[in-house]
Structure formats: C-alpha cells, structure tokens
Amino acid sequence: MAADVDGVRPLSEEAELRLRHGGPDDGRDVLLHDGDGALGYARLDRADDGWQAELVVHPGSRRRGFGSVLAETVEQLAGDAPLAVWAHGELPGSAGFAASRRWTRARTLLQMRMPLAGVDPDPRPALPDDVVVRPFRPGVDETAWLRVNARAFAHHPEQGGMTAHDVALREAEPWFDPAGFLLAWREAPDGTQTLLGSHWTKVHPAGEAADEAVGEVYVLGVDPDAQGLRLGRALTDLGLAHLRGRGLSDVLLYVEEDNTTAVALYEKSGFTRFAVDVQWHREPTSP
C-alpha cells in the first residue's frame, strides 16, 4: 500500500528479506496495529557499534502521530547507542520529521537510471589472456565471491559485510538468475583459478520499480589487487548487455552521493539521477 501511494518501496531489500525469513536474534520488529489491521511497522538491526532502523506508516493512518510513536520506540530500543534511520525516496515531510526528532542528515544514496537502447548487445571487451568471464555457479562460487566482495567493499557499511546466509537468501528469491551473475576469473597454467571481480545483475518485476520490468546493476566489484585491468568496465558492459538481452528497457543502480568519482563516471555513461534515499542519525543525548 505505501509503495503504491508513495511511488517508492518503504523498506530496503534487506529489511524485506528479514521480515519474510527472520533476521539476527538481536534485531527488533515493531508493529503498531488496532482491531482493523496494521498502522505502522519498524525494523531495527545492529549496525557496527549502534543500530539501524527503517519505519513506515500505513497511508491511511498518517498524520495521527504513529510515525512519532515508531520513532520513539526505536530510539528507546537503541538506548544510548548510535542510531541511523533510513528515509527512502526523501518524501515530502521526511526532512521536517527528522528535524523534529533532532536527527541529522548523514548519508545520501542516489538511485540512477539509464535506458538500455544504446547498450552494445554483444560487447567483446579486451580481457587479459588469462582472464575468463563466466556465470556464477550456485553451490560452488559463494566462498570466492564473498571473499572478493568483502575486499572490494571493505569500507562500505552494508555491502562489505554480506555473509553466506545473505547470499543464500538472495539465491532463493524469484529474481535470482545465475546467468546474470558474471564472474571474472584468472586461470593459472596449473589449473587453479582466482576470482578477480563480478557483476551481479538483478531484474525488478513489473510494478516494483516501474510499470515495466527494470534491470539493476546490483553488485559490481573488483578485487583491489586486480585494479588496472579494466575489469570494471568489461563487467559493466557484459552485464548491461545481458539485461538488454532480457528485453528490458531501463537499468538502475545505487551509488553514494559523496562518491563523486563514481557518480561522474555513471553520468558520463548515460545514467541520470532518479531518486534519493537519506540516512538520518540521531543526535547524542546531552548528559
């Protein structure tokens, strides 16, 4: 209901997965309801040395104080620890609500989109002679991918901390397609292989991100030791070609706004800014 009214999903993919499958034991689910149904929901999870939360109020129950009740509840559950709250879509009123809670803007995540019509449907990237790109093999490649993902996103607060359980949950999702999960391997003369990077694509079904199905540059990462081989560009081109081959018209991706180098690169490639997610931090309580 909230997604239909607001034009944006109120919860992140991670929160939705934990809502459906259960999350870590130290997480918290907060549900406001009356005799007629749910009024609002919040999810609270551990994040580094503090907590991270997301909350949503049923569109028919807004402007009745339920958002404040949810916010007060997650603040109380977080105690004196740092608390970060995501506002998806930066909807009208979200900034004012955050200011009323004395929250400060800490991170801005851009959603960028690009049409796939101009993408080369059959790219032939120039790869080193000992590097081959092939689709992900479920049950075989998870450990290698997790190692490289952790190295590629060592400073990313969410992506760098993915676990085998996180990957398993996504492999069980209807959208998962190993053919669109491309891995670049270095093959040594003795037959050993080393993963250098990957491009995991995703397809959002019609009605989720747009009226039509939309592709996503879901996770694109290269091992720091493989920088300089132009693998990022090669994997990007191959992944976009795969999405175009699926008959999709558009592709989206997410990038931190302050990653100006990446934003400029994506804009040069044809991506434009489409939507914004904002993370707010609670101000420390004065002694």
Automatic annotation (TrEMBL):
Annotated binding of acetyl-CoA 1, by residue: 55-57, 63-68
Keywords tagged on the record: Acyltransferase, Repeat, Transferase
Residues holding acetyl-CoA 2: 220-222
Molecular-function GO terms, alphabetical: mycothiol synthase activity
Catalytic activity: 1D-myo-inositol 2-(L-cysteinylamino)-2-deoxy-alpha-D-glucopyranoside + acetyl-CoA = mycothiol + CoA + H(+)
Any one GO biological process: mycothiol biosynthetic process
Domain N-acetyltransferase positions: 1-117, 131-287
InterPro entries named among the record's database cross-references: Acyl_CoA_acyltransferase, GNAT_dom, Mycothiol_AcTrfase, YpeA/RimI_acetyltransf
Top-tier EC class: transferase
EC number: 2.3.1.189
Positions of 1D-myo-inositol 2-(L-cysteinylamino)-2-deoxy-alpha-D-glucopyranoside binding: 13, 158, 202, 216, 254
One Pfam family matching this protein: Acetyltransf_1
Family: Belongs to the acetyltransferase family. MshD subfamily.
Function: Catalyzes the transfer of acetyl from acetyl-CoA to desacetylmycothiol (Cys-GlcN-Ins) to form mycothiol.
Subunit structure: Monomer.
Family matches, as PANTHER family: ACETYLTRANSFERASE, N-ACETYLTRANSFERASE DOMAIN-CONTAINING PROTEIN
The protein's name in its UniProt record: Mycothiol acetyltransferase
